[in-house]
Amino acid sequence: MRRPSSPSPSPTTSSSRSPSPFVLFLLAGLALEAETKDYRLAGNDLCPGASDISLEAEARTMLHCSLLCESDIYCKGFCYSSSQLLCRISSSDVGKAGRDAVATPGFNMFWTGYVKGFRRYGEKAYRHFASSRTHWDARNLCWNMNASLAVPLNAGENSFLASLVNTGSFWILADDATTEGVWENTDTNERLSYGRWRAGQPDNGGGVEDCAELSYLAEWNDIACSQTRYYACEIPVAQCDRRRDDIRCSYLL
């Protein structure tokens, strides 16, 4: 279906008004949502408690405030006052910050939602991000969108994940930092029963290769966690077959 053409803009007059900060936020949010985070209104006249605020800064618009959150990989949400031009960033767990939120007249509170563009395979959905990060930062970026760094648990998931790219490699949620040679899920410390290693790998080159990457050839390799790679995030979506109100379901391709 072709997208309808936009009407020609009316000539600007001295009485024309600029869009409000909220309208600017909504317009820009379309682009932000497509690429990174989606912000959802959590409440009016509310802000996270003082212990859950990681940054307070001046922001002339709500868009500016959202971009401050966007640039902080730990940001889980923000509250903004258009009258005071103040932005408060929260990096606390959404559940805790929500429970401890306090009445704050003039502030609107937003939480980050799920990112669009995930592709479903089996009981999970995945999205690859072409942004080079360390293993730690990639994990945090996935957490920040209510997802986790992807890790294939069987041959089918491994092949599907690898098919998301046609060259190079990207981080997966696997490391042997605790015990050399024992590969675990980095978040849960559960031992991984599956791994499709490239010939001769893992070799712990230089004694510092504790994290795993997955190549477009569907092969694993160990490298130093401090190196930078693209990454892929995953979310569980089995409940989408039963619950269409789960916000994650609306983000599947």
From TrEMBL:
One of its GO terms (molecular function) is growth factor activity. Coiled coil: none annotated. Gene3D superfamilies: Mannose-Binding Protein A, subunit A. It comes from the Eukaryota. Keywords: Disulfide bond, Lectin, Secreted, Signal. Residues 121-234 form the C-type lectin domain. It comes from Penaeus vannamei. It is found in: Secreted. InterPro entries: C-type_lectin-like (IPR001304), C-type_lectin-like/link_sf (IPR016186), C-type_lectin_CS (IPR018378), CLec_Tetranectin-domain (IPR051663), CTDL_fold (IPR016187). It holds the Pfam family Lectin_C. Its main location: secreted. This is Putative collectin-11. GO terms for cellular component: extracellular space.
